[in-house]
Amino acid sequence: MKLWIIGAYGIVSTTAMVGGKNLEKGNIGKTGLVSELPWFEGIEKFAPLRFEFGGHDIRPLKNAYEAAIEHWNLNRHYDINLLENVKEELKRINAKKGTALNCGSGIEELGEIETLDNLTLSEIVERIEKDIKEFADEETVVINVASTEPLPAKSDYHESLDKFEEMIENDEKKYATASMLYAYASLKLGIPYANFTPSVGSSIPALKELAEERKVPHAGNDGKTGETLVKTTLAPMFLYRNLKVLGWMSYNILGDLDGKVLSHRDNKESKVVSKDRVLEKVLGYSPYSITEIQFFPSLVDNKTAFDFIHFEGFLGTKMKFYFIWDGIDAIVAAPLLIDIARFLLFAKKKGISGVVKEMGFFFKSPMDTNVVNTHEQFKILKRWFEELI
Amino acid sequence: MKLWIIGAYGIVSTTAMVGGKNLEKGNIGKTGLVSELPWFEGIEKFAPLRFEFGGHDIRPLKNAYEAAIEHWNLNRHYDINLLENVKEELKRINAKKGTALNCGSGIEELGEIETLDNLTLSEIVERIEKDIKEFADEETVVINVASTEPLPAKSDYHESLDKFEEMIENDEKKYATASMLYAYASLKLGIPYANFTPSVGSSIPALKELAEERKVPHAGNDGKTGETLVKTTLAPMFLYRNLKVLGWMSYNILGDLDGKVLSHRDNKESKVVSKDRVLEKVLGYSPYSITEIQFFPSLVDNKTAFDFIHFEGFLGTKMKFYFIWDGIDAIVAAPLLIDIARFLLFAKKKGISGVVKEMGFFFKSPMDTNVVNTHEQFKILKRWFEELI
Amino acid sequence: MKLWIIGAYGIVSTTAMVGGKNLEKGNIGKTGLVSELPWFEGIEKFAPLRFEFGGHDIRPLKNAYEAAIEHWNLNRHYDINLLENVKEELKRINAKKGTALNCGSGIEELGEIETLDNLTLSEIVERIEKDIKEFADEETVVINVASTEPLPAKSDYHESLDKFEEMIENDEKKYATASMLYAYASLKLGIPYANFTPSVGSSIPALKELAEERKVPHAGNDGKTGETLVKTTLAPMFLYRNLKVLGWMSYNILGDLDGKVLSHRDNKESKVVSKDRVLEKVLGYSPYSITEIQFFPSLVDNKTAFDFIHFEGFLGTKMKFYFIWDGIDAIVAAPLLIDIARFLLFAKKKGISGVVKEMGFFFKSPMDTNVVNTHEQFKILKRWFEELI
Amino acid sequence: MKLWIIGAYGIVSTTAMVGGKNLEKGNIGKTGLVSELPWFEGIEKFAPLRFEFGGHDIRPLKNAYEAAIEHWNLNRHYDINLLENVKEELKRINAKKGTALNCGSGIEELGEIETLDNLTLSEIVERIEKDIKEFADEETVVINVASTEPLPAKSDYHESLDKFEEMIENDEKKYATASMLYAYASLKLGIPYANFTPSVGSSIPALKELAEERKVPHAGNDGKTGETLVKTTLAPMFLYRNLKVLGWMSYNILGDLDGKVLSHRDNKESKVVSKDRVLEKVLGYSPYSITEIQFFPSLVDNKTAFDFIHFEGFLGTKMKFYFIWDGIDAIVAAPLLIDIARFLLFAKKKGISGVVKEMGFFFKSPMDTNVVNTHEQFKILKRWFEELI
Q1: Lesser CB count within 10 Å: N end or C end of chain C?
Q2: Angstrom distance (rounded) from CA B359 to CA B337
């Protein structure tokens, strides 16, 4: 199958490429790949573990190998031999120049960038479409892992496909963001699109309409890795036992470009102390909660989360629970790119179109569903697959 | 409803009594009570939150108030006013002298004890039956929270009801343990029995046969509180994401009589480093694991668990997860006594008999099922209730 | 001895009062009291463990008992009998109405307040002096534990005693803060003054001059409790072993009035990510550091700190250290009030005047010294005492 | 300088070799080296950072490079380039066949071994002496990092030098252990000896006598790395603040040969729950304590320690402190080998003989001193050096 990755030179992308090509060669096991669990047997007929990679990026690097080695030198997050094994393949992956429209001030942190953003909206879309078209075939999926954008300016242009296309025609750049344009181009070409970031992507009514019209499946938003994965697995325990969560502190630190972009970004959800929607969806009420993310340079991609749960039990007695997640973000995220692409391709071949809400298992803010409990999500994914296969 | 508690003067029992009587008076909320979750609406018609308590114990205290105040002074585990509120009611609860047959050397730690154990097996059983009969009515459940016994000597006497009664007749004390005798007496009287401890209780074929014969429901073993509750909630996450658990360390410390009994007991599962069966049941394989429990006097009943999970992700990269559970064991356990009693009474009134394996949610080693995943257990309990109500 | 406490109705003050009066009656041990360590034998001749308490506050409560019971109900931070033991004594402690001049918006959180702040500066100072004078004798110490003020507006008025008194005369309220006025009044009356908060207190040149002139000892600032205490004890280990600290995260959560005031206060050192001066003073360089404090209501005074230290060892290898401090702030702070008062009284009787920098052991930002290593501070305190006694 | 290392093929040794040779070449910084702190300026004249390595081992490997690469493959504990940089140098280091006399059953875990132990005691000593002599010059130090031995059989043979030599002569193998023989050979040759393990080494009266007679300095026992380092740094805080330690739990896990040897070793201090002498020495009393070490294979040399401190403060209130040490044992230990060798060589050149108790800073059980507080030890080391230099 073919993966077109937005943000192709990022750490998640290059880690997925290294993994994908090593899987192909049988150099590594299948740890981390959800789609290789016994319950998903049969998926290989629809989406075999053979990969071709392409994508867009805004950093003018030579090729994916140059990007991969840069990330590896900072993180040493896997055995270097695995990179050397696929050096030639990665050298042949050259990302096309992309758009960073309304991606906020955070992208300054990426260093030198080159974008299409001096063009008009319709020129940008045309270029993106052309790039993807040249690469794509029937077995292609587009997936967005570019840095998180600020929330887009609200506009009626997002509310219907006609309006959206009017926005492009009128070159109303203020209301468009990069992730929308990529999603638009993919769906228009009939290619499944997944949004692994919290950016808006295909989640606006206009693009949902497009997906339905073109009969393409799409999914998102925001890959569920690390702290939220644990939180949505653990919080149900308090619910089932009728233990009242008095407060939940989630404090995340990470280095890396991602950490930098987040720490600068204009619209970082600065609600340092805020009602946490994930907890509300699991628990049915909204406990006091803190959700924070800070830059900690020496950790690079070794995202570390500190959680503290204060809860009340029988007779009003308070008790405590602490956890520390010491993970490597790209290592947790990369296999999910492959999983998501496989399930989307499977969906497409099975004639599914529109939002695949049964793929909520992979996302922090799954589209069109309130189910965030990891266990229920997994059951839903399994059942969906069983029924289709 | 009426609860006859084996080990009536223990901290879990007296905490349940304080809670039960305060619930009755509307002094406290329903936090900690599973049976009060919205999914179990309707249970109050079968098992209202009104309680009468009785039980057996081997410590010659005056009454349950004396026991409760002793535990409170060491633990201060709830607002003292809640105890004072129900002082008179607890003073009226006088445990009958019980048996500690083959309960191991650990019970030395309980201080002065008085037992029936100089009598013959049939005399002991007769006495126990008489005590329970005097107390019981149609709304009664027996629940065992006495200190953990050593594993019983293996014997054919446990294999059928006839054999079991032959053992009693022949006064073959070597093969009987206290928990068996209590279970035998309860079931014979047609009273539902639950085993909240890891002791053998009603889990031998002989007593399962008796339960079927008398058409009585029973459940066990070993209340799932603390570290195992978290473990069976969290471990599925690693499974769903195909993350390989390389090792799982579980280190528990507690003070209190329980801690003392455990630290001395003849048959403490000393498999300090051992394959952990709970993990195997969830994960489908048996990772390296350490499960240990140690005495730490100053914590009293404030059981603290330290867990470390070493796991492997994509590309073979190792990552880490730590958690600390800082709970009060009796506070977590006490409401479950009430829950279990209510569900068993509900089951009886609905004509259910034998092992209620759908109540596995409450137990570390649920009888007759391999489902230990907390989420699946909860779903099973919910569905079972929905279908019966 | 006599203690006049600024913020007499706060949790630290009332906990110190409960402790002081119970110590007097021999009801409790001396745990937590530095001055009762064997190295300080002899101090009791200068400052015996017999106490009279008074103070200023801005909350119009009836007496210290009313304040104490309010704090106790929220925190249950000690055995209630200890409060009941000294109920009558605490009922006789009535704080005088104080000033909250330039104390920031945070004090809104205190609820209803009554202050002297409609008076002129000279009237305020006169009132404060009168209140203290009526209470004080030769054995009196004033100590400030009122909520943290914002940084004062910079002004030449702080630079000399003459200027400071000119400010009072001219009623230049903009440049004065409550803590300065209290410190001024105390020192002018020849009474030793300690500043247990980060407020400016006696640390401006004008007041240091006054202390020298009146030959009064004084000390501050900011009681070293909790996370900073651990940090200044542990950081030297990294220095001694030449392990390079790459980053140090300190994340603190607490509830209580203090937490509220801090979370609102105008001038909260919002340097969420900043060079940490304590670390620089210990290590000789300034590692990346995060020092943050957040409100977490259910914890009340149970201040919890999460620290993560990323450090580099031999061959450039990175390693990790985590700690969690789960303390009760008032319990750690209260005995230090008594200690500080005793050492200041001892100093006064030994003819010491000006800043007692040897008392740096008790403070986060000790005046006139750069020694923040807990171990060195303790040695200095011991040596100072040994030489004087 | 020259280092003769007992256990030359172990992970600590080879890491020290890789570090030493890279230091020589200026490839790495001096992080982790105590002797390179500013307070020890001048040491380079006595013990420059130029190294020649040799040693004994019982594993029949080809050379130190083969050993180093084996350890690196399991641990990846430093940048592989650092090993490649010094490949040729390490290939030239060939350990001589050593003794494992009375080293317990644990060494079975080392796989194939070859020892001198079929020889008589005097033949073994002769061989060891010959090996060392061929390597040594005036600038040589011997240091023992071989796996921990069981406690030796008690005997009068250890009480004086005459007796010890009588033991050798009589070939009383039962009473000799490998570490004694190495220490004997070194000291007899006038070469400073350090014991980085808890094995008996030079700590018996006989060998102390020999050191005095030959005017050689020696030091030990047991390198202070990891959990004990933190404990002896942190425990003083509780002392200084008069906070009563109610209990201290120390739970250590590690993989690697060391972990295996420890888990099997005959004489593992199985005092799982025991009075901890280090705490007693710091605190002046002996709190309840747990000190445990368990094998956890996937961690390899990534020794992880979990500590929990339960303490009592003012008014009898209990509080909690937790820490996790996530270190790489060899990375912490290796530079100390170099430090110890340098300080011993410095001592020798300054005419110091016998136990250098001022080097207690480096050891868990420093000989001839009760000072275990890390801060005091560092002060003592500094002062000793300042006075001699």
Answers
A1: C
A2: 12
Report which of D132, D110, D113, D109 is spatially closest to residue D181, judged by C-alpha positions.
D132
Nearest chain D residue to B304 by CA: give it: D308
d(CA D150, CA D269): 9
CB crowding B14-45: b at 16 or more within 10 Å, else e: bbbbbbbbbbeeebbbbbbbbbbbebbeebee
Output the pTM of the full model: 0.96
State the smallest CA–CA distance between residue C276 and chain B in angstroms: 27
pLDDT at D274 over 60: no
Would you state the structure tokens that stand for residue C322, as one six-digit string?
Answer: 């985590």
The 3-state DSSP class for residue B186 equals: helix
CA distance D233 to chain C (A): 6
D377 token code pair: 């030890």
Q: Is the ipTM of this complex over 0.90?
A: yes
Q: What is the pLDDT of residues B249-308, one digit of tens each?
A: 999 999 977 777 776 655 455 434 444 689 999 999 999 999 988 999 999 999 999 999
> C296 and chain A: CB distance < 8 Å anywhere?
yes
Determine contact: D81 vs chain C, CB below 8 A: no
Residue type, A11: I
B81 touches chain A (CB under 8 A): no
CA distance D297 to D317: 40
| Residue C320 contacts A where some CB pair is shorter than 8 Å | yes
| CA distance linking residue C266 with residue D280, whole number of Å | 47
Residue A363, token pair as written in the block: 């996302």
**Helix H or strand E segment including D367:** none
Neighbours of D42 (CB within 10 A): 12
Helix (H, G, I), strand (E, B) or coil at D174: helix
Q: Which domains does chain A have, with CATH numbers?
A: 2-223+331-388 (3.40.50.720), 227-326 (3.30.360.10)
Contact predicate B284/A47, CB 8 Å: no
**What is the enclosing helix (H) or strand (E) of D130?**
helix D121-135
A231-240, A332-341, C377-386, D106-115, range with the lowest pLDDT? D106-115
Q: Does D382 touch chain C (CB under 8 A)?
A: no
Residues of D in contact with C373 (CB under 8 A): 375
Q: What is the DSSP string of A348-373?
A: HHTT--EE-GGGGGGBSS-TT-----
DSSP for C298-327 reads GGTT--EEEEEEEEE-GGG-EEEEEEEEE-
Which chain B residue has the Cα nearest residue C77? B76
Task: Tell me which residues of chain C have a pLDDT lower than 70.
Answer: 263-276
Nearest to A297 among C263, C288, C308 (CB): C288
Is C81 in CB contact (< 8 Å) with chain D?
no
Give the type of residue at D96: K
Cβ within 8 Å, pair C288-A299: no
Cα(B241)–Cα(A387) distance, integer angstroms: 21
Are the C-beta atoms of C182 and C56 separated by less than 8 Å?
A: yes
- Strands (DSSP E) along chain C, which ranges? 2-6, 52-57, 96-97, 140-144, 193-195, 217-220, 244-254, 288-295, 304-312, 318-326, 354-355
pLDDT digits (tens, 9 = 90+) for A123-133: 999 999 999 99
At residue B264, the pLDDT reads 62
Give the neighbours of chain A: at least 3 Cβ pairs within 8 Å.
B, C, D
Q: Is the pLDDT of residue D271 over 50?
A: no
Q: How many CB pairs under 8 A join A and B?
A: 183
Residues of chain C found within 8 Å of residue B326, distances taken between Cβ atoms: 326
Measured CA to CA, the distance from residue D36 to residue D42 in angstroms comes to 9
H or E element at residue B180: helix B178-188
Beta carbons of A51 and A372 less than 8 angstroms apart: no
Distance CA A2, CA A224 (A): 23
